[in-house]
Inverse folding.
């Protein structure tokens, strides 16, 4: 499996093919539409991250030392960014996730969606991904 | 007033030139600003007034004997008089400067703590902004009074039969907005005030959304309290206005202690200053108050009747255009509403539409508009809200509708 950094580079490469924001957004909307992200049984209050603008659900499970993330949102653009984040972080070691950064979102021109003031649940989602990683890493250390 | 006549009365080109921000580009596109219900834009005369204050007569007011302090005090009190005239309040001291509408509401809610007891009822409308719900919930928690709600009809109007039934001897206070921020519904506040007064209940009208479109006459309405925000009427942010009837303002205890609000202070006892200073502790937003008066003058020069007629024309034009988009649902279809259109298209999330519109230079509001009870009623996560002002045009509406169609195509 490729490292988080390698996957992020791949994503940056993919997005560099697009000339304008329209194409980038259309691609993201497609990503959002094509991915069945989360088991419906996890789309509950327990897994919800409330943003004023859109909602995000995140679930994590540990398989063979790697964390598998699934997530969803009620807004398609948010869902597209979730698909990108999941691609980068799911199936990785907890420690790698803890140490990873999310600057690649900036590089593919979607920085505005990760602004803490945007209230779309994405900032909290990344925090949640990191918290899961910290929790699983603690388990591994025990 | 004849609407087409009013349209020709407004010199839109001149008006648009008064607002420097309307010339800017957003994401490479000319700005189309349709988020006027959140805040109005600022004309050059108001910007100039702010600069003039700090450049020429910045001083603390009501206490200095020096010239600058006198000039600043005069200008500030002049602004209070302008607001008094605008609202047709009986006395200038019935106008209290606050930090905003929310602050004004909290000032009144806090004051009523000493007047309410267990068994009393307070009534709030289902159309309220969170800022006109939460302070009253807090008030009821402290006093043991019961908070009741005037329900809403599917058109987004208040259920006045239900309201009439709630008007009993237990009723002590009613809070209702003049205009709903999420839907634009104009509420029958005169009827509400009269009925509430028939059982001796006091009424606070939240005029934050009405003030850009309607010039209220607080004496004719017989409102006990009427609150509004300067930044919705071409003024600066951080300034609110509380109108209160003299009798009520005298009865209410002060909200904050500090300088300016006192008469005499000793460690044994402090006596409070008279109105309006009793409620204006500390150094106020002097520049903001003065600029508020200038913004109000600007709007009154254009005229609120002409503004309302012109905006209504925009509202009708936009409503017709939007209705032609398949799957578009407008929330809030009251017969009388201000220039606000809240809508969704099919299953598309408002956040997605707002994001694409922003890329195309169009500023709208998306989300629940701090009115979660209304969104729950319609069982939706939020809406896209386009709200128009007198400096907007039909051409901008055309740009907006075309952009919306493009967004819908991308997102469907």
């Amino acid at each position: 499996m490729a490292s988080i950094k390698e996957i992020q580079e791949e994503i940056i490469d993919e997005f560099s093919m697009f000339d304008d924001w329209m194409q980038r957004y259309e691609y993201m909307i497609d990503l959002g539409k094509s991915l069945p992200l989360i088991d419906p049984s996890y789309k509950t209050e327990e897994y919800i991250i409330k943003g004023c603008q859109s909602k995000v659900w995140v679930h994590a499970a540990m398989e063979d030392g790697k964390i598998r993330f699934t997530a969803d949102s009620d807004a398609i653009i948010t869902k597209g960014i979730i698909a990108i984040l999941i691609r980068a972080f799911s199936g990785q070691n907890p420690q790698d996730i803890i140490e990873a950064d999310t600057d690649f979102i900036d590089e593919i021109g979607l920085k505005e969606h990760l602004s803490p003031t945007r209230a779309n649940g994405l900032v909290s989602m990344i925090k949640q991904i990191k918290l899961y990683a910290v929790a699983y890493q603690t388990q591994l250390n025990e | 007033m004849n609407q087409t006549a009013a349209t020709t009365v407004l010199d839109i080109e001149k008006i648009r030139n008064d607002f420097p921000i309307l010339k800017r580009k957003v994401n490479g596109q000319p700005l189309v600003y349709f988020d006027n219900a959140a805040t109005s834009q600022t004309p050059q005369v108001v910007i100039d007034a702010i600069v003039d204050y700090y450049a020429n007569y910045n001083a603390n007011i009501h206490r200095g004997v020096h010239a600058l302090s006198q000039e600043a005090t005069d200008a500030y009190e002049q602004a209070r008089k302008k607001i008094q005239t605008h609202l047709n309040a009986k006395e200038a001291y019935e106008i209290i400067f606050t930090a905003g509408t929310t602050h004004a509401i909290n000032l009144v809610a806090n004051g009523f703590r000493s007047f309410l007891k267990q068994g009393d009822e307070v009534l709030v409308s289902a159309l309220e902004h969170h800022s006109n719900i939460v302070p009253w919930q807090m008030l009821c928690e402290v006093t043991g009074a019961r908070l009741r709600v005037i329900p809403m009809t599917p058109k987004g109007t208040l259920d006045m039969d239900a309201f009439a039934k709630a008007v009993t001897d237990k009723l002590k206070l009613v809070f209702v907005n003049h205009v709903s921020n999420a839907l634009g519904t104009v509420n029958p506040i005169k009827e509400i005030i009269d009925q509430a007064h028939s059982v001796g209940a006091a009424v606070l009208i939240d005029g934050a959304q009405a003030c850009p479109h309607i010039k209220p006459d607080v004496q004719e309405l017989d409102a006990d309290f009427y609150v509004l925000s300067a930044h919705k009427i071409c003024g600066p942010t951080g300034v609110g206005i509380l109108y209160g009837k003299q009798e009520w303002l005298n009865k209410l205890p002060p909200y904050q202690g500090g300088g300016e609000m006192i008469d005499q202070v000793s460690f044994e006892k402090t006596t409070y200053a008279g109105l309006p200073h009793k409620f204006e502790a500390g150094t106020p937003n002097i520049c903001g108050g003065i600029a508020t008066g200038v913004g109000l003058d600007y709007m009154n020069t254009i005229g609120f009747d002409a503004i309302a007629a012109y905006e209504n024309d925009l509202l009708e034009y936009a409503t017709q255009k939007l209705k032609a988009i398949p799957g578009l649902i407008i929330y809030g279809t009251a017969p009388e509403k201000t220039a606000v259109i809240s809508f969704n298209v099919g299953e598309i999330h408002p956040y997605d539409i707002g994001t694409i519109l922003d890329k195309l230079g169009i500023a709208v509001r998306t989300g629940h508009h701090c009115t979660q009870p209304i969104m729950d009623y319609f069982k939706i996560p939020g809406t896209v809200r386009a709200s128009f002002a007198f400096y907007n045009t039909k051409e901008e509406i055309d740009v907006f509708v075309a952009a919306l169609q493009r967004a819908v195509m991308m997102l469907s």
The interface with chain A takes residues 27, 348-352, 354-356, 359, 366-368, 381-382, 410-411 of chain B (CB under 8 Å). Confidence is low (pLDDT under 50) at residues 1-8 of chain B. The longest strand of chain B covers residues 171-177. The domain at 3-43+303-411 of chain B is CATH 3.90.1150.10 (Aspartate Aminotransferase, domain 1).
